[in-house]
Amino acid sequence: MAPKTSKAEKKVAYDGKLCRLLDEYSQILIVAADNVGSNQLQNIRTGLRGDSIVLMGKNTMMKRSIRIHSEKTGNTAYLNLIPLLQGNVGLIFTKGDLKEVSEEVAKYKVGAPARVGLIAPIDVVVPPGNTGLDPSQTSFFQVLNIPTKINKGTVEIITPVELIKKGDKVGSSEAALLAKLGIRPFSYGLIVQSVYDNGSVFSPEVLDLTEDDLLEKFAIGVSMVTALSLAVSYPTIAAAPHMFINAYKNVLAIAVETDYSFPHADKVKEYLKDPSKFAVVAAPAAGGDSGGAPAAATVEEEKKEEPAEESDDDMGFSLFD
Q1: What does the buried/exposed string (b/e) look like for 11-28 if buried means 16 or more CB atoms within 10 Å of the residue's CB?
Q2: Tens digits of residue pLDDT in 52-98
Q3: Residues 289-315: pLDDT tens digits?
Q4: 91 and 62 Cβ atoms separated by less than 8 Å
Q5: DSSP readout, 150-175?
Q6: Where in the sequence is the domain holding 143, given as residue range(s)?
Q7: Quick one: 51 and 166 in the same domain?
């Protein structure tokens, strides 16, 4: 019979395993493991087998091992993990795609009943309909102020009722009623809380960002930099086009008000001296927009010119002279 391993030997073995994983993997998911059973955890390990390894342990032991390993290797990036080891958490070391691993972990959720004293993670709503309970069970509904009626010898809930609110403790009456109705309102599994990637720590929501989201955020950032640069008159690449255009407008305004001129200002001054040139330029544009407008104007001009031509040809003589 093999001798039992002592606690000290187990700690040494655990420390060696954690340090080896830190050296081998650069991506780590920090997951919350509240209400996760051993069988469920084993299924998760099986599902992630290949590119990922799940490591659970006491926070104090993990912090100590990480701190000592950081000092030995000189890699202070590992220290970013220490503040994340709060509560019932575990580490998933992976070489795969972080988003895919996170989605795989989310698949292993197991439904659970509402136990007395448990903090509800979500709102629990009892749907309307026939409960299948006999009328002697109406006391449960009366205590919880749930409107019911007797229909064909069974209790029927009339309207949907919000039985438990998120963050509230589950009472004995609520737990008993949900058990009688066969409702398992909660589901538990490993929940990704933070992501460690080559020394950087960020929220798991970042994994859901698409290229369109990144482009949108980048555009918003550029617009903010541009606005700030223009406000403080500080030149940047983002604000340069706007600064050049504003400078051109200022120079053009000075040229119009003074004798100073340059080629582009000459055209503007020419238009300002003779506004009729605006109409000459605008006529083709109007034709492109409204279709038959220029043709109508031409017909009207021809009609106006016709009487003048007739009067010139007659020269005061009638047809019978």
Answers
A1: eeebbeebbeebeebebb
A2: 999 998 999 999 999 999 999 998 999 999 999 998 999 999 998 88
A3: 444 445 444 445 444 454 444 444 444
A4: yes
A5: EETTEEEE-S-EEEE-TTPBPPHHHH
A6: 124-185
A7: no
The amino acid occupying position 254 is: I
H-run or E-run covering 312? helix 293-314
Q: Please name the residues in contact with 251: beta carbons below 8 A apart, sequence gap of 6 or more.
A: 262, 265
**Contacts with 67 (C-beta within 8 Å, 6 or more apart), sequence order:** 79, 82
* Interatomic CA distance for residues 54 and 21, integer angstroms: 10
Alpha helices (runs of H) in 1-83, residue ranges in sequence order: 7-24, 38-48, 59-73
Asked whether residue 24 falls in the same domain as residue 160, the answer is no
Place of tokens 């438990």: 164
Cα 303 to Cα 311: distance, rounded to the nearest angstrom: 14
DSSP lists the bridge partners of residue 150 as 155
- The one-letter code for the residue type at 88 is N
Please give the helix or strand (H or E) that residue 105 lies within, else none.
helix 98-107
**Tally of structural domains, the chain:** 3
**14 with 57: CB under 8 angstroms?**
yes
215-259 pLDDT, tens digit per residue, is 888 889 889 988 998 888 888 888 888 888 888 888 888 888 887
Residues 20, 13: contact at Cβ < 8 Å? no
Same domain, yes or no: 151 and 193: no
Is pTM beyond 0.70? Reply is no
